[in-house]
Amino acid sequence: MTGRDTTGGGAGSRLVGREADVGLLRAFVDRALSTGGALVLTGEAGVGKTALLESASQYATETGATVLTAAGAQFEADLSYAGLNQLLYPLLDDIDRLAATHRRALTVALGLSGGSPPGHLALSTAVLDLLHQAAGERGLLIMVDDLPWFDRASSVTLGFIAHRLAASRIAFLAALRSGEEGFFDRTGIDEYEVDPLDNAASAALLTDRFPTLAAPVRQRLVAEAQGNPLALLELPASLTGPQRTAQTRLPALLPLSRRLQNMFAARIAGLPAPTRRLLLAAVLDGTGDLDVLRSIPVGHLSTNLAAAERAQLVRLDRDEDRLLFRHPLTRSAVVQLSTSEERRETHRWLAEHYQDQPDRRAWHLLDAAVTPDPEVASILEGVADATLQRGDAVGAVTAMLHAVEVSPRGRERSRRTAEAAYLAANITGDLRRVTQLLDEIRRTDPGRANSMAAAVAASSLLLNGDGDVDTAHRLLVSALEMQSDIDLAEEKNLVEALHTLLLVCLFGGRPELYAPFDAVLSELGSRTPELLWVTRRTVADPARTAREALDRLDAMLPGLESEANPSRIVRLGIACAYVDRLASCRAALWRVVEGGRAGGAVASAIEALFLLGNDGFFTGEWDRTLAAIEEGLKLCDDHGYRVLTWPGVFLRGLIHAARGRTDVASSQADEMTGWATPRGVALVQCYAAHVRALAAFGEGDVEAAYQYTAAVSPAGVLASHNPHAMWLVLDLTEAAARTNRHREAAAHAAAARQAGIAAISPRLALLVAAAAAVAAPAGRDVELFEEALSVPGTQRWPFDLARVHLIYGERLRRTKATTEGRRHLTQALETFQRLGAEPWVERASAELRATGLAIPTGVAPQLAVLTPQQQQIAMLAAQGMTNKQIGARLALSPRTVATHLYQLFPKLGVTSRAGLRDALTEQSAKEIGEPPRKDE
Ligand SMILES: Nc1ncnc2c1ncn2[C@@H]1O[C@H](COP(=O)(O)OP(=O)(O)OP(=O)(O)O)[C@@H](O)[C@H]1O
Ligand SMILES: [Mg+2]
Question: What are the tens digits of pLDDT across the range 751-761?
Answer without folding.
Answer: 999 999 999 99
